[in-house]
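Protein entry
_____________
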Amino acid sequence: MSKKNKDNNNENIDRREYRRKRRVRSQIISYVSLVLIIAAIAVGAVFGIQKVRSVMDEKKVAAEAARLAEEKASEEAAAAEAAAAEAASAEEETTEEEEYTEEDLLEEVVQTCIADMTLEEKVAGLFVVTPEQITGVDKVVKAGDGTKEALEKYPVGGLIYFADNITSEDQITEMLANTVSYSKFPLFLCVDEELGSVNRLRKTLKLDSIDEASAIGKAGDANAAYENYKTIGEYLVKYGFNVDLAPVADILLDESNTAIGDRSFGSDTETVSTMVASSVKGLEEAGVTSCLKHFPGQGAANGDTHEGLASTSRTADEIKNNEIKPFLSGVEAGAQMIMVGHFTAPELTGDSTTPCSLSKEVMTDLLRGEYGYNGVIITDSLRMSAVSEYYDSDDAAVKALKAGADMILMPEDFEAAYNGVVAAVKDGTISEERINDSLARVYRIKYKSTVE
């Protein structure tokens, strides 16, 4: 090989080596660059992840803080709601306590008492009789073992006393006190002590005189009616009585009606109404329960029910616009009892033979229904001829209760009347609920003073 060719060949080899080294260097630079890029990316990724993680941690912290704040707010709201509910409950309890009235307490006492009574005790509690009718003694002037045994057998609702039972102030006071001590249940201790000819104590005990109702009515002096009946009430309480079967609320529309006579405040509707209201206030303020009589107004009746049947021919409108007004006035003034008379009132009842005291139309439909009266309704004495000549004692008592009476006054034969009512309840003629209703009215009066 010529030197020239050899030189050329060497030159070519050098070029190829140069180009190879340059390629290697380029590759190395590329690899290094790639590594650097990858490293940069990796570092960036690490920082990115840390940033993301930091952001996420911040969000978690914020979320947790928000959750805790929400829980706290919820707890505070729940606590506030509970406090509000407790306050409302306390206020409601206070309101309920404030709304629990004396009437509620009275009703609770009454119903508790009735619930513990036997049927026989309940029925006996609807009778007001003389002490002679349960003891069998001809004239009772003291209360001893006989009275105690009688009240154990027949725990009647009340006893009524007449002049024959009274001999002195000490005697009547002791007798009534002993009677009360012997009774299992509270008693009505009754007497007829009116302004006028009917009085049981004034004449016997020679008490100070009292003005007659007719004179007071004629003078139109309502204060005199009040003062006279307050005086009566005060001495009744002193001796131990708690019920006065008075005042007379009848309007004297027939001068020949001697059964009423001077017992009435007169013939003018408004005057009698005013006097009756004042009389009731006098008795009630003295602590005595008053009893208006003789519903629906006996002042126009053509006879004396003590002796036989009596009747009024007055129309229903006349009776409602006149005779009944004094009774309504008395109830408004505080009267808690009304006595129904034995006379007939065909224009009210549609029946010329049934006494008002046995009439559903008079007691239930008119007095209870139309006038809304919810006090005690008591019959006049069932031993009066207007009833006893036409009805047996058991029949009269049952009819009176079925018609709407709450209490039976002095049946001709007490034992027969009592047994008749017990039998009527047992056979369903009268419901025990009906007996309970009447007894509740009676006991609302008897227990009223205990809750005031």
